[in-house]
Amino acid sequence: MQARLPALLVNGRSRFVLQFTLPAFAAVIVMAIVLGGMVLLVGRKADQLAIEQQQQLLATVLQQKIENTAHDQEGITVWDDAVRHATAAKPDLVWLDMNVGSWMHTYYGHDEAFVVLPRSKPVYGMRGGHLVPSSEYDRHVASIADPLIAKLRTSMLRQATPANEQSLSLGAIDLGVVGSRPAIVSAKPIVSDSGKLVQTPGNEPVHIAVRYLDGDFVKELAQSYALQAAHFASERPVDGQSSVPLRNAEGQILGYLAWQPFSPGTLLIDRLLPLSALALLLVSCVLIVLLRHIRRSTLALEASEAQAQHLAFHDTLTGLPNRTMFDDRLAHELANARETGDALALHYLDLDGFKNVNDTLGHPAGDELIRAVSARLQKAVRSSDLVARLGGDEFAIIQRTISSPAEAEILCLRLLELINEPFSIAGTQARVGVSVGIAFGPADADDRAELARKADIALYEAKAAGKGRFVFFAEGMDATIRHRKQIEADLGAALDAGNQLEVYYQPLYSPDEGCITGAEALLRWHHPEQGMISPALFVPIAEQSGQIVKIGEWVLEQVCKDALTWTIGSVSVNVSAVQLRRPDFAERALMILDRNGYPAERLEIEVTETSFIENAAGCEANLARLRASGVKVALDDFGTGYSSFSHLRALSVDRLKIDRSFVSGIGSANDGSPIISAIMDLARASGLKVTAEGVETIEQRRFLSGVGCNSLQGFLMAMPMPVAEMNDALLRGTQPA
């Protein structure tokens, strides 16, 4: 019995093996086959889904790129200056190349550009950022561009404005073959942005933009959307590559954008089949892992598409909606307001002092500050409102469904308070302010572009009024803006004319002897229609437009010529903070002095105390370079700004100029004598010379002489005069009796 037991156990184990192992093994094989079939099916489905998603994504992106080509052109085709230069009797090719040709290549990547006049007459051509003969148009592009121009001119005759509110002008665009290469060809009319230039509909100059689809364009797509082996193919690929056809407006296929598709299903099959011989558990585990991998890959594709959509409508630095999304949302909210009778407030915001932070702490700190400002703006608004970044340090807020302007005012007060609080940036505290312009829809305008324009005008007024405030749009502002723009345009014409601007000189006198010790150069503008225009009007406009740089160099050049032979101590020239912030200001000023043989020690530059203190970081290097060369520095309007001994010790200056507001108060109810005495004590302690300006009475002269002023300036001694009269005054040597 004991001998038979092991045999029975062995036989029983064998039967168990036969009864359970073989069926289990067969079940594993069957399940492996079933799973293998499922894997093949799922793999093919995953490959198909991935390819379809990539094709849909690329088709959408390609369409956006085509539309963006026309949108890019609007920056230079809706422009008065472009109309003038393109239609001139002799077109300025250099100007056209810099502004409508090479600039488009550098900034937007356009490969070719042409300007075509009526009757298909090309006047300008660019290829690859270089000027080419306009005849290249007929040889290279005309076969595609001429039909587009004809279509565009027909549209211009039938329709004054584009149906798409996102566009500024009508256009015609198509795909075609240019020189055997597929390309986007877009035609846009060159039209007036102000509406002041008269143009015959259908006879406008036309800007032709060409962007090839088989070069850098494909590389950009491949880098942006992780396309492998992306290229242009004239024939449809048949070797397993995915493709999107490029069709023109007539449906003709010009070629294909091809790439090696991402195939998660194939990856699944390649990895799983070698493991199918393993146990069911291992197969199941691997299957689960790979299915999760498929899910992640699919989600990654979906996330890539979502990211592309997000980037198209959001600012990359802050994550806020960008201008495209802002425009769309504003149009939607205005349409809703028209239907429901609700009101909305559009706030345009611009940071005050951001450039100073950017220049002082660097661009990374500037980016950090922009992100911090964005976070505070989002905290200030309701969840139903929209905060957008329009670019640089400009933001916009759409405040929905407000019941009264008071709600907009409350929000503005909150914004001013939040932004005025210091920011912790780059290990230090930075301070900026904010100016806000507000327009109400649909009360001020029920059109998106018009409402935005009026909010921008209100912002301009807030900036002009001293910054750090908010201003509601009022109808009178339109006229003010037009007047300022006219002044800006006329000032540019005055610089070109060469006979409207003139430098006057007001002498400085010693308080005792009455002899001339120096002079201040003062700019005057003889407008051909409006007569003499006050510097208080046109100088701030020149500073805001940047024209002050060219004007300042012209004034310095003129002073060097006028005063070269004068025997007085020095001539002072007013310099704005805009000029001083330019890194090359000192070197350019010294070049002008050297060119005219004018000694640096006989030049004194005047800068107002407030503007210098607020822009010290950007000005100090220039002032140090000028003083090292012998140029003197004076603080103008002293006493109206900081007037601090600690500031004086930190500033490299040679002279203080007491503001006329204190001089006029000498001997009156608002006696400025104690303040002047305090300034004199401060100057003596600092070793500085002092000039009093605005002296108009004998009593003022006696007092200023008594407290030790070094020089006097004012109508009592002499008014500002042209150079010829200044020469006569120097011959007399003393002030008139």
Automatic annotation (TrEMBL):
Q: Name one Pfam family in it.
A: CHASE4
Statement: the UniProt record of this protein carries the keyword Signal: no
Q: Which residues form the GGDEF domain?
A: 342-475
Q: State the UniProt keywords alphabetically.
A: Membrane, Transmembrane, Transmembrane helix
**Which residues does the UniProt record annotate as the domain EAL?**
484-734
Q: Which Gene3D superfamilies match?
A: 3.30.70.270, EAL domain
What is the protein's name according to its record? Bifunctional diguanylate cyclase/phosphodiesterase
